[in-house]
Specification:
The structure is a single chain. This protein has helices spanning 3-28, 60-85, 161-166, 185-197, 212-224; strands spanning 36-40, 46-50, 243-246, 259-265, 271-278, 281-288, 296-302, 309-312, 318-322, 328-333, 339-343, 355-358, 364-369, 373-378, 384-389, 394-399, 405-410, 414-419, 424-430, 437-443, 446-451, 456-460, 474-476, 485-488, 494-498, 506-510, 515-516, 529-534, 540-545, 550-555. It has 561 residues and is an alpha+beta fold. The strands form eight sheets. The chain has a four-stranded antiparallel β-sheet with strand order 3-30-29-28, with no helix packed on it. It has a four-stranded antiparallel β-sheet with strand order 4-5-6-7, with no helix packed on it. Strand 16 and strand 17 form a beta hairpin.
């Protein structure tokens, strides 16, 4: 058989075999496989796109567009690699080795895919950076940005002092003539403020560091008015006291008269007593202390009985009030609503009660009568048990923390120490530089004595009995009129001093540094302070004035009522 005949025969047989296979596939419903093109996208995912084998129909313009898009994609990849890995254009090379991705058996030969190689040790070139070095600010900024004022008025630069003076009647300068200064008005105000305050306050400084506690306190008090657990505790810092003026205690009643003589806090409940006099009548009102609304609980009227003094008893269920007009005092039971009258002057004279004090344990109630007489009553049943006789007129008394000692101060400047167990005077000394004692307060190891000259002497109680002539450890002389009110807070860190002989005569002293708080009372108006007191845990400070208001302040350092 010739070679030509053999080749023709084999070709016919092959065609018949191919046609039979094609017919079988058509009968079984299967379609012939198309060639697969494998590509890798920018995310690294493998995509298989089906396309027809015949690519000869593509136009030249389409090929140019694809080439241009491919070139842009490569440039984009180079920029991303530069930002992410710190490599430049020279570090990107192509690998002739094709990508090994499994395909179907009938797929065409695989195409070569470009692969990015990163050379180690090369630094990133400087240029426009698409991704920041520290997008989440993990490491912080190297330089602290300078703070700018929240608001600046451009018109302040143009306003002169003479312009402001011209708008006011009789606007005379310090020399008595009309102001014609060309100086900026804002600069003049800034200088005056600096002279009064002594510099930029801490809260207004642009360079101050943020205090999380104060920021939290500011946000909470805007909505609640009171938040009792926002401080870290610890010792009270001197110079600055963080406080807030809240709602007046008696803003819901205003029936206590124009002169508030009593501001007392209940030792066990968040309840305050506010009392005063209006003409010949007296009134006492109970309030729930919260610093927001200070809800009124109950009012008690006392006809023809102008209240001079009032105190809660130790159990917190009763309170006493006294008057200089009668020699009796009243006891009001808050649970039963019963009002009882008790005789306070056993000598049956017509003198009233100047003042009285309740011992911390509630065992004694001591009233002041004329001629240095002090009557002692049992704090539980209010029966008379003893009488102290001082050598001089007594104007004020106080107890130590456990109620075993009583201190009296009065005319002549002498201070007497009375033992409540033996009921004797165990010591007597002269208050240094005092002509007439007007107030006294004791707490911890300190005894504060106020005089008619406005001076407050601080003594160490551990040296009083052993030293016949003790000297004060500190002399406070900010007030210029008689010191009529003195009160320590519960932690002996603040001493409140006030005088009812002059308006705005109200100061707070820090202990143990014995220095005045510079930012108190700030711009608050107190009028004439008649009485003052701290709450049991020093969370609140109250002051009654001669305008019928019992002003209330929240001390942020202390956590609770």
């Amino acid at each position: 058989m010739s070679p030509k005949f053999t080749a023709k025969l084999v070709g016919k047989l092959g065609n018949k075999k191919f046609n039979k296979t094609k017919k079988k596939r058509l009968k079984s419903g299967t379609r012939p496989l198309k060639s697969g093109v494998i590509t890798i996208d920018r995310k690294g995912d493998v995509n298989v796109k089906e396309q027809q084998n015949d690519t000869s129909g593509k136009s030249r313009k389409a090929k140019k567009r694809e080439a241009k898009a491919y070139k842009q994609m490569v440039e984009r990849e180079k920029e991303l690699a530069l930002d992410l890995f710190g490599i430049d254009d020279d570090d990107i090379s192509t690998d002739p080795t094709p990508a090994t991705v499994p395909t179907s058996p009938s797929a065409p030969p695989k195409k070569k895919v470009k692969e990015i190689k990163v050379k180690k040790g090369k630094k990133k070139k400087k240029g426009k950076q698409m991704i920041p070095d520290d997008p989440f600010d993990i490491h912080g900024t190297a330089e602290k940005e300078e703070r700018q004022p929240a608001w600046v008025d451009d018109d302040d630069i143009q306003v002169k002092v003479k312009d402001v003076a011209a708008t006011k009647r009789n606007a005379k300068g310090s020399t008595g003539v009309q102001e014609n200064s060309e100086q900026q008005y804002s600069e003049t105000l800034r200088k005056q403020f600096t002279q009064v305050v002594g510099g930029t306050p801490e809260w207004a400084s642009l360079d101050r560091e943020d205090d999380d506690d104060r920021e939290e306190d500011g946000m909470l008090t805007m909505g609640t008015g009171d938040y009792l657990s926002r401080t870290k505790g610890g010792a009270l810092k001197k110079s600055r006291l963080y406080f807030k003026k809240v709602c007046n205690l008696n803003h819901q009643s205003q029936t206590e008269g124009p002169i508030i003589k009593v501001v007392e806090f209940n030792p066990h409940l968040p309840v305050a007593l506010v009392g005063g006099r209006c003409g010949l009548n007296g009134s006492a009102t109970l309030f729930k202390v919260d610093g927001i609304t200070n809800h009124k609980i109950q009012s008690v009227r006392f006809p023809n009985y102008p209240i001079r003094c009032g105190k809660f008893l130790a159990d917190g269920k009763k309170f006493l009030v006294s008057s200089t007009k009668e020699h009796n005092f009243f006891c009001y039971n808050m649970e039963s609503g019963q009002l009882l009258r008790f005789p306070a002057n056993i000598r049956n004279n017509m003198f009233g009660i100047k003042s009285f004090a309740v011992s911390p344990g509630g065992n004694f109630v001591v009233t002041l009568a004329p001629s240095g007489i002090m009557d002692v009553f049992d704090g539980r049943v209010l029966s008379h048990i003893h009488t102290f006789y001082a050598p001089e007129e007594v104007y004020c008394i106080t107890f130590n923390e456990n109620g075993t000692r009583m201190y009296s101060h009065g005319a002549g400047g002498d201070v007497c120490v009375w033992d409540m167990d033996t009921r004797q005077c165990v010591h007597r000394f002269y208050d240094d530089g005092c002509i007439k004692g007007t107030s006294i307060a004791a707490s911890g190891c300190y005894l504060a004595c106020g005089s008619s000259s406005g001076v407050v002497n601080i003594y160490d109680t551990s040296q009083l009995v052993s030293n016949p002539t003790p000297t004060p450890v500190k002399v406070l002389s900010k007030l210029l009129t008689p010191v009529t009110s003195l009160a320590f807070n519960s932690s002996t860190e603040i001493l409140a001093t006030a005088s009812r002989e002059r308006e705005e005569a109200f100061k707070l002293v820090h202990f143990p540094s014995m220095t005045y708080f510079e930012n108190f009372p700030a711009n608050h108006t107190f009028r004439i302070v008649q009485t003052l007191n701290f709450s049991p845990l020093s969370g609140f400070l109250a002051a009654g004035n001669d305008h019928g208001n019992a002003q209330l302040f929240r001390l942020h350092h202390y956590k609770s009522y």
